[in-house]
Each structure stands twice: as C-alpha cells, then as structure tokens.
UniProtKB/TrEMBL annotation, chain A:
Domain Fumarate reductase/succinate dehydrogenase flavoprotein-like C-terminal: 469-580
Domain FAD-dependent oxidoreductase 2 FAD-binding: 58-153
The name this protein goes by in its record: Succinate dehydrogenase/fumarate reductase, flavoprotein subunit
Annotated source species: Lutibacter oricola
Matches recorded under InterPro entries: FAD-dep_OxRdtase_2_FAD-bd, FAD/NAD-bd_sf, Fum_R/Succ_DH_flav-like_C_sf, Fum_Rdtase/Succ_DH_flav-like_C, SdhA/FrdA/AprA, TAT_signal
Gene3D superfamilies: FAD/NAD(P)-binding domain (3.50.50.60), Fumarate reductase/succinate dehydrogenase flavoprotein-like, C-terminal domain (1.20.58.100)
Start-end of Gly residues biased regions: 353-365
Gene Ontology CC terms, in alphabetical order: plasma membrane
Superkingdom field: Bacteria
UniProtKB/TrEMBL annotation, chain B:
Protein name per the record: 4Fe-4S dicluster domain-containing protein
Residue stretches making up the 4Fe-4S ferredoxin-type domain: 1-29, 31-61
Residues of the signal peptide: none
Keywords in alphabetical order: 4Fe-4S, Iron, Iron-sulfur, Metal-binding
One Pfam family in the UniProt entry: Fer4_7
GO function terms (MF aspect): 4 iron, 4 sulfur cluster binding; metal ion binding
UniProt keyword Membrane present: no
The species this protein was found in: Lutibacter oricola
Length: 585, 71
C-alpha cells in the first residue's frame, strides 16, 4: 500500500510539474472534490509475475464460431494436429450464437441451377461479389448443414453443446477466454500467434505451421447488436504482419430500436432463443444504407417494416441505387416475419412485430462493421489463403465477397462461415504437411511480450473505455460513416489520426479485463482509419457504400475492390483489384 | 442497467464462460458468479439463457455514459 501511495504522489508531482501554470486551476478542482489522479494507472496485478507459456501445433485455429468449428474439424480430419483458441467460448462468442438461419442449397429441391444462383446473386450485388466464393458456399452448404444436423445443431438454441460434440469426439484441444493480439511472421511466413488469458494472468505463445483466422468481423462496440466482443482483431493483426485486407468502405445497415437502443436481445424479440433452421434460395438486396439515407433526409428516427406499414410515408427521393426487380422487402433487420415462401427461419406464434422494428428505430447498431464477408483478409485463391504463406481466414474474417457488398440471401452468411471454415481447414492441413516445425526467435518473443503487456506497465494513460467512447462519437454519427461526404470523412480522419498517434500508444490497463479492452481499442482505431480512408477513396456509390457527393455508380472507374496493406515503412497503402480477379503479388 | 442481479447461483460458471464481453467473474470466496464489469454488458442474454437455474435478471436499460473530455 505504501508503495502505491508513493507512486501516486510521484505521479501527481510529475503531473503538476508538467501542468506548470495550471496549478491554480488544479487547486480549484481539488477544492470541488475532483480527483487529480484521473489518468493514473494503478495495476491490480503484478505484471512482472505473469507466467509465460509456449505451445506448439500444426494448425492453430483462432476463433470458435461457425468458421472456427469447421476449420478445426476439417484440419483434424485431414491429418493435422489442431489447437483451437477462443476469445470467448466455443459456439457462444462472436455472431454465431445469434445467427438462426443457415442456407442449404439442395439441388434436388431448388428450382434454379447453381449457375443461375450465382448470376442472380451477382445481379443483386452489382458485380461486387466474388463468383468463385458465391458458388462455393452454395455448392458445399448442404454437406455442412447435414454434418451440423448430425451434431445436434438444430436441436437447441444454445450452440455450445452441439459444437462440443465433434471437437470432443476428435480430442481437439481448445483454450477459451484467450485474447490473441499478435500474429507472428518470420522469414516471410506465419509462424504462430501470441496473446493472453483473461483468467490466469499469463501470456501465451503459439508456434504453428499454419494459422486460420476465424475471428469474425467487428465494429466500434456499438449499441443494439451483439458484436461488442468483435473488434476486427484478426484483420488488424494480419494487417500488421503484411496481409492485404479489403472491404472497409462497406457498411452493414442494421438499426436498433430507439427505445433502449443498447438492448440487443429486446430489439431482436425472441429470435435469440429460437432453434436454428435452414433457408433456401431467395435473392434480396438488403441492409445497405437506404434507411440511413431516409433518416438523414427526413431527420430523426425512421420507421421500417414491409411496404404499406408506415414505411412509404418517409420515403424520399434519391439515395442508394436498388436493382430493378429487387424491391424493398421490409428493410434491414432480418425480421423473420411475413415471408410467404417460408424462406426465413420460423418464429414463435403470436409475436407479430419484426424483431425490434415495430416502432421508431435508430441507425448505427452495427457501426464499424461491413456486410458479412465483404471485409477481411484478401484471399489469393479459392482456398481461403492470404498473401502471407501459412495464413488462412474463413467466415467474416475473410474478405471473400461471397455475397458482395450487400445482403443477397438470408442465411448465407452462416453457411459461408461453415463452408469456408472447412475449405480453410483442409488447405491449412495440407500446407502444414510440407512445412518443418516453426520456431519463434527469442528476440521476437521478447518484443511481442512487451507490446502485449505495455498497457499494464504504464504509470499513466488513457482508459480504453474513454478512448472507445470518443471513437464512437467520431465515427458513428449518420453523417460520418453512413451518408458520406469528403469534407466530413476528412474531418473525422483528423480526429482518428490523433487517437492513433497520441492515444493508442498511451492506453492503460489495470487488470486483464482492461488489457483486453486496450488491445480491442487499438484494433478499432486502426479499423476506423481504414474505413475513413477507403470511403474517401471510393468516389462512387454502390451497394452499402453511399457518398452524398458521388451518388452514382461509377462503372468506368470502380468495378474494383479496394485492398489495404501496410508497406515496409509502416504506411497504410491502397490498391484496386478488379472485380472477379485474384490479387497480384 | 443491463445485467442487474444474480440470485440463486450454483457456481457452475456457465454464465461466466458464455458472456462474450467478460462481464461476469467467479467470486473467489463465495464461489458464485458476480457482476464485475456491467458497463461492458451488451444485453444479449446469453448468460441468462445458459444459466441452468434461471438465476439472472437483465434489464433492457443501459446507462450510456456521456462523452466527456478526458478519461
């Protein structure tokens, strides 16, 4: 205790010296009872006594949602030693636990062929989809769904039990509540990852021949959608070792109820408690930013629901382009209501209103997240492989553009995660067979350990909660990240660059919970920078990217995806990749 | 706000493991779950749904702190 007091006094002295002439106002603050140690960090744990562990495996699967499940199972079945690590719990973290519809393309039951399906998706996606991945999802979906059936997936609304079945059968080791912060690259290929346990106060290094990121997407811990544990961790740690990432200009346009906007469960009605079910082909054009546009032009909150239920009254001219024949079917939110063809998962009887969308709604419940599978690592082929040898990604961590930059199909996101997990698992296992065991050098271990623990070691700094809140204030307004204009994107970028340069390096943490928040906050800041820069660069409007100053589709210049990578000097660079091509080296 | 109370906990840790945002921890003395970081609750109800004895009460309200100039 004495030591802590001394430290506090020293820090105060240091601060007062720094503050100089501000001593008078400090005295005034003290007089009104304001603490003077607001930026001090008082660690609750002894950072120097943390354990350090090292574990080796062939294939390291990071993440334990739908993609992670199939990545681990298929890599194991292809003969690799597999280790799964999860920030949360198997089947209970990320977006998987809340996804209740999974697409299964059954050629015997569908009235269109696979080729026709791919064409229809491409029509709705305005060319933004990667046809190889669109086809792959449909082609493999039934097989994955049948495996899930066998494991009991469709028998419970809680997925931990059914996910545990194949993992236990195969004795695949799994470590839960581990926050991975770093991917490690040596000699131009991935050699492992590093992170920490939030329970056991230890840093863990994983030596692996290959790594599959099944880390999901992310947002700015927004209110009203269950993605507050998703902060683009996989994307940013891959970017930091030179991986190309894509899709940062797109937006997911889910709203929340205006009353108790943060209450995800209440907004989605009873959907979170439903058992999952399958969906079939039903091409749509959903969840762009139409509603954000309406709210921007009309002011205030917006109403949604099927046409004729109050929606037409606030329809405004202009706004995002919608392809002919794909009229608004009730707007974003994925309400499993009113579908005559039974193409949505069934809902309980007597719960009339679509989840959360009965009254006034507000935008931004998924702020910081793009359309499923439109952002993440750039695949270099149809095997979910990144440009870093040995590094794979699947599900929302992979920018596969399976459905392009708009929602074209209910349930395809979960199916895509299952399919890509399987594809990545098999590819990573195959790659691992020809690779000698990897060793991480001592100097690398030391450097990364320092980076992981830095927020705990800071004597003073900024709290992750406050920096996150500040970032939300910069990014989430409708006029910044949804209804985009160059001058405001640039203004927001100036703030985000300030957070990146001055606040990110001074994030503090007093315990392992805050250490996780500190690393999540770092990732969100870099993702915000990417989103703003990509949005400035894409001088057109298409699908879920809407520029008020460039409202038209520009097919001459923008039939291209936008990739982001870090150059050797550490600067963020951008490149166009024409639609339906693979990246050049 | 958000997750409100836990009454009748049997210490099985299902809620702790299932919380995506690390809001709950096991109290080392009582060996029961406690709400340690309620400000990070995303009101998704996974903890309540995984709880085998229906011990958890959640409110839809959340006090969202106002933006301040430092923190």
């Amino acid at each position: 205790m004495k030591k802590k007091e001394e430290k506090q006094q020293m820090s105060r002295r240091k601060f007062i010296t720094l503050a100089g002439g501000a001593a008078a106002s400090l005295a005034a603050m003290s007089a009104i009872g304001m603490p003077l140690n607001w930026t001090e960090n008082n660690p609750e744990i002894d950072v120097n006594s943390l354990d350090v562990n090292k574990i080796s495996t062939d294939v390291l699967v990071i993440g334990s949602g739908m993609a992670g499940l199939f990545a681990a199972v298929k890599a194991h079945d292809a003969g690799a030693n597999v280790l799964m690590v999860s920030k949360g719990r198997l089947g209970a973290s990320g977006q998987t636990p809340f996804a209740k519809g999974i697409f299964a393309f059954d050629p015997e039951k569908e009235d269109i062929t696979l080729d026709e399906y791919v064409d229809k998706v491409s029509y709705s996606a305005l060319g933004t989809n990667n046809k190889t991945y669109t086809r792959q999802t449909a082609e493999h979906s039934l097989a994955r769904v049948n495996e899930l059936k066998e494991w009991g997936f469709f028998d419970s609304s809680l997925y931990n039990k059914s996910f545990s079945k194949p993992i236990k059968q195969r004795n695949i080791p799994i470590q839960e509540r581990i926050t991975i912060t770093h991917l490690i690259k040596e000699n131009e290929r991935v050699v492992g990852a590093a992170g920490f346990s939030i329970d056991e106060q230890k840093v863990i290094f994983y030596e692996a021949k290959s790594v599959i990121l099944c880390t999901g997407a992310g947002g700015f811990k927004p209110n009203g959608f269950p993605i507050c544990d998703l902060t683009h961790d996989g994307t940013i740690m891959a970017y930091n070792i030179g991986a190309k990432v894509t899709g940062k200009e797109w937006n997911d346009g889910h709203p929340a109820k205006s009353e108790n906007a943060a209450a995800c469960y209440d907004g989605w009605g009873d959907m979170f408690e439903q058992k999952p079910s399958t969906t079939s082909v039903g091409i749509r054009h959903d969840l762009g930013v139409d509603m954000n546009y309406t709210a921007y032009m009309n002011g205030g909150t917006a109403k949604m629901g099927p046409p004729g239920m109050g929606r037409s009254e606030n329809t405004v001219k202009g706004g995002p382009f919608r392809p002919e024949g794909l009229e608004d079917q009730g707007g974003p939110g994925g309400p499993p209501q009113g579908d005559k063809e039974g193409r949505r998962p069934p809902r309980k009887e007597g719960k009339g209103a679509p989840p959360g969308m009965g009254g006034s709604i507000v935008g931004g419940s998924t702020a910081g997240m793009a359309i499923h599978k439109s952002e993440g690592l750039v695949p270099i082929n149809d095997k979910c492989e990144s440009n870093i040898p040995g590094l794979y990604a699947a599900g929302d961590a992979l920018g596969s553009y399976m459905a392009g930059a708009i929602y074209t199909q209910i349930g395809s996101s979960l199916a895509g995660s299952a399919v890509q997990g399987g594809v990545a698992g098999e590819a990573a296992a195959k790659y691992s067979k020809k690779i000698a065991p990897n060793k991480i050098s001592a100097s690398k271990l030391k450097e990364i350990q320092e980076e992981i623990l830095a927020p705990l070691k800071r004597e003073a700094g900024y709290s992750p909660a406050w920096v996150t809140q500040t970032l939300q204030g910069i990014m989430i307004p409708n006029f910044i990240i949804y209804i985009k204009k160059e001058n405001l994107l640039k203004a927001a970028l100036a703030y985000v660059e300030e957070l990146r340069d001055h606040h990110l390096p001074m994030l503090k943490a007093a315990n392992m919970h805050e250490l996780r928040l500190a690393h999540e906050t770092k990732n969100m800041i870099i993702s915000a920078e990417m989103k703003l820069k990509a949005s400035i660069m894409r001088t057109e409007s298409r699908c879920s990217h809407y520029r008020l100053d460039y409202p038209e589709i520009d097919n001459e210049n923008w039939q291209a995806w936008l990739n982001i990578f870090k150059d050797e000097g550490g600067t963020m660079q951008f490149e166009k990749q024409p639609f339906n091509t693979w990246p050049t080296a | 706000m958000a997750i409100k109370s836990i009454n009748g906990c049997i210490g099985c840790e299902e809620c702790i493991k299932s919380c995506p945002t690390d809001v709950l921890r096991l109290n080392p003395e009582s060996k029961k779950a406690e709400i340690l970081y309620p400000e990070d609750c995303q009101i998704c109800h996974l903890c309540r749904m995984y709880c085998p004895v229906d011990a958890i009460t959640i409110s839809p309200e959340k006090t969202i702190p106002v933006i301040v100039s430092w923190g």
